[in-house]
Amino acid sequence: MNLPNVVQLVLFGAAGDLAHRKLIPALYDLHREGHLPPEVDVVGVDLAEMEDTAFVEFACDAADSLGRFFPKDVDAENWAQFAERLYYVQGDATEADTFERLKQRLDEVAPDGEQAHRVFYLSVAPFLVGPIASGLAQAGLLANPEFDRFVVEKPFGRDLDSARELDTLLVEHASESQVYRIDHYLGKETVQNLLAFRFANALFEPIWDARYVDHVQITVSETVGVEHRGGYYETAGAMRDMVQNHLLQLLCLVAMEPPVAFKPDEVRNKKVDVLRAIRPITRERVHEVAVRGQYGEGYMAGGKVPGYRKEPKVAQRSTTETYVALKLEVDNWRWNGVPFYLRTGKRMPRRVSEISVQFRPVPHRAFPAGADEAFQPNRLVLRIQPDEGIVLRFQAKRPGPSMLLQPVAMRFDYEDAFETPPEAYETLLLDAIRGDATLFMRADQVEEAWKVVQPVLDVWETTPPAEFPNYAAGTWGPAAAERMLARDGRSWIEPLPPDATPVGTAPEAVAEAHPGSVA
Q1: 117 is an active site residue
Q2: Residues 169, 175, 178, 184: is their CA dihedral positive or negative?
Q3: What is the 3-state secondary structure (H, E, C) of 114-148?
Q4: Fewest CB atoms within 10 Å of the CB: 214, 256, 261, 351?
């Protein structure tokens, strides 16, 4: 899609944490690389008392400390050009006067002779989304579906009913095509590369189905605890915070059918098809396919760390889960009988996001006895972060007079192949400016994702856990998660360090580094 010539980008919550850490640095980096339109105004809106000059200083600090180009590549001329397009409107997002003054400011700074495309970014608490959408509509700032749109940050509700209520509220003031629900995970280059890997290459798609794939594992683990987010996390938990959005989006990209064209609704339709095909979880099956956990005290990086219940703003007897493991099945022609195992948790041994596609073993081993003692089925690992890349494990003959097989790995590393990729928010902000909704969530997609996890949340709500905390900080989660896979004759694949299985590693070292294989 073409980049419009004139854009007005309005940041609600402009003095907040997300704007400082992500949005303003992303906007400057886009400007620095020449990706923004020739005429772009950035208008910050927040309750904090601030003049234009103070907002410019705030933005400079954000770009200087967190941008990709500052401070090692300071360019005074570029920064001056960017800074002169920054404006600020102080106001309460629940008061009509704020939106009248915002409209007046936008009219003042708009160039003559050409209508501006307006993007309103709502980096605010969920309870402010409704008042802002209403205020924008009443001020006439959402009147043109072709030129006016707004971006909404997750969470999109906290359950199925509240998500529907939010969607109803939003479409009272704007059309669905104007609503861009952002999940920053979809802006990551490695996540987008899943589409390129699957549909731009002929090698894997013919075996990307139940005939050849044994199962798929999706792991998103964090080493940090809840830090300063205890108050928010107590109302969310890992299922709402991670599984309902990030992990289910990754599952969709793995399981979706090829789109006819790379167009927003075509791609999003294929994702919705996957969510609708996921086998519903009945109340009776929740204990078989879902595991929750909460970290207790433990050791990380050589030091002792507190358990979740000792974190700031967390209840002493909290039943909020910081870990979720889930088994899902996609009931369609391609994936019938292939389980998808999802897990996410805090205070895990390593920060990693990766997808492991475990292929079935060969149907017959024709090699001499003892030749394949180290045999492991083929596995494709898509590393989203860190150490971004793709690893393919296969069997090879070890050099020597005897026929001995050994697992080896072929690697593609982003760091070696490309320059530093843009941050996810750079991609998503630019897409919002262009009006390209491919990487944004549609209302039906959000609702279908809630339908997948809602039965689990309902059961957990009425059945408080008796054993919390049930895993120590610095471990891979509760024992119940291991038992869930053991019942299927499988085990969790422990994410590998970057150089754990180089080509030529001895079989016993490979087995130690990667114990979670399927025989």
Answers
A1: no
A2: positive
A3: CCCEEEEEECCCHHHHHHHHHHHHHCCCCCCCCCE
A4: 261
The reported pTM is: 0.89
Residue in this structure with the two tokens 């994936």, named with its chain if needed: 335
Q: Both tokens of residue 292?
A: 């929750």
Per-residue pLDDT of 428-470, as tens digits, reads: 999 999 999 999 999 999 999 999 999 999 999 999 998 999 9
Of residues 242, 114, 234, 139, the one with CA closest to residue 183: 242
- Terminal Cα-to-Cα distance of the chain (whole angstroms): 47
Name the active-site residue from 20, 31, 215, 246: 246
Q: At 66, list the tokens.
A: 């967190």
Residue 206 has pLDDT above 50, yes or no: yes
Q: What is the pLDDT of residues 314-343, one digit of tens each?
A: 999 999 999 999 999 999 999 999 999 999
Q: Provide CB contacts within 8 A for 409, sequence distance 6+.
A: 391, 392, 393, 394, 501, 502, 503
Within 309-440, residue ranges assigned H as helices are 414-417, 424-434
Q: Give the integer Cα–Cα distance in Å for 196 and 119.
A: 28
The two structure tokens encoding residue 331:
């009931």
**What single string gives the DSSP state of each residue in 186-209?**
GGSHHHHHHHHHHHS-TTTGGG-S
On the 0-12 / 13-18 / 19+ scale of CB atoms within 10 A, 234 is: middle
Residue 196 and residue 188 in contact, taking contact as beta carbons nearer than 8 Å: no
pLDDT band at 498 (very low <50, low <70, confident <90, very high): low
Beta-carbon contacts of 319 under 8 Å, excluding residues fewer than 6 positions away, are 294, 464, 465, 468
How many whole angstroms separate alpha carbon 321 and alpha carbon 178?
Answer: 34
Number of helices (H) and strands (E) in the chain: give both, helices first: 17, 18
Q: Can you say whether residue 445 is alpha, beta or left, with left for phi > 0 and alpha for psi between -120 and 50 degrees? A: alpha
Instruction: Tell me what pLDDT residue 14 has.
Output: 92
3-state secondary structure of 164: helix
151 - beta bridge partners? Answer: 121, 180
Comparing CA positions, the residue from 425, 434, 417, 371 lying closest to residue 397 is 371
Structure tokens, 267: 């791609």
Which of these ranges, 349-358, 369-378, 502-511, has the smallest mean pLDDT? 502-511
Beta pairing class for 339-345 and 323-329: antiparallel
- pLDDT confidence tier of residue 507, bands split at 50, 70 and 90: very low
Alpha helices in 256-400 (DSSP H): 264-277, 286-289
Residues 6+ apart with CB under 8 A from 206: none
